[in-house]
Specification:
There is one protein chain. With about 190 residues, the chain is an alpha+beta fold. About 30% of the residues lie in helices and about 35% in strands. It contains five helices and nine strands, in the order αββααββαββαβββ. A six-stranded mixed β-sheet has the order 4-5-2-1-7-8, with helices on both faces. Strands 3-6-9 form a three-stranded antiparallel β-sheet. The chain binds zinc ion (ZN). The site of zinc ion has 6 residues, from loops.
């Protein structure tokens, strides 16, 4: 479990993150995903987000069975932290909780009054609103680590899983301070 002090830091980060996400819906950069990692004495929280264009190739509600399957497959891949990110084995991290979601943002949608229509209800209207909009995949992982002092490096496989991605912006908050790096297909590992 995360300590209270870290949770306070985390809620500050989350507040910042919410703003970032809201902006990203309008202006996320295709080809760039973001990973945030908050580490404390007992574990870590990882948050990943990516433009849907780089995950499934479209940024609207899936329409065909193939597209629906693509979203389902992507959510399954993004729910598996160890497929995305490798942490040192010596840290002994185990995932306590993982979830991924797919969010479609219509152009000009200010993110308020989220209407969750039943399938096919107002479908045409949704489709029209979605044109020109963006969509993102988000994933969040809570983990407990036997020895967080062994969390000295991070390696990613996202470029193998999603070849359209060109960069992964990594932001780390650890007891020792904050750090960050931009990983690319040519540079998939960083020190923490
Ligand atoms: Zn987009």
């Amino acid at each position: 479990m995360l300590k209270a002090a870290t949770l306070a830091t985390l809620s500050l980060m989350t507040a910042g993150l919410a703003v970032t996400v809201a902006k990203a819906q309008d202006a996320h950069v295709h080809g760039e995903a973001i990973l945030q990692l908050v580490i404390d004495d007992t574990g870590a929280l990882a948050t990943f987000k990516s433009p849907a264009a780089d995950i499934v190739g479209f940024e609207r509600h899936p329409e065909t069975d193939v597209e629906k399957q693509a979203v389902a497959d992507a959510l399954a891949k993004l729910s598996d932290f160890t497929a995305l990110i490798t942490l040192p084995e010596a840290a002994g991290c185990t995932i306590d909780d993982a979830h991924a979601d797919f969010e479609v943002e219509a152009a000009g949608d200010d993110h308020e009054g989220h209407d969750h229509h039943d399938e096919d209800e107002h479908h045409d209207e949704d489709e029209m609103q979605a044109e020109g909009g963006h969509a993102e995949f988000h994933a969040e992982f809570e983990m407990t680590c036997a020895d967080t002092s062994s969390l000295t490096s991070l390696q990613t496989s996202v470029f193998d899983l999603f070849p359209s991605l060109e960069a992964l912006e990594v932001e780390v908050v650890a007891p020792a301070g904050q750090s960050g790096a931009e990983l690319t297909p040519q540079s998939t590992e960083m020190s923490l």
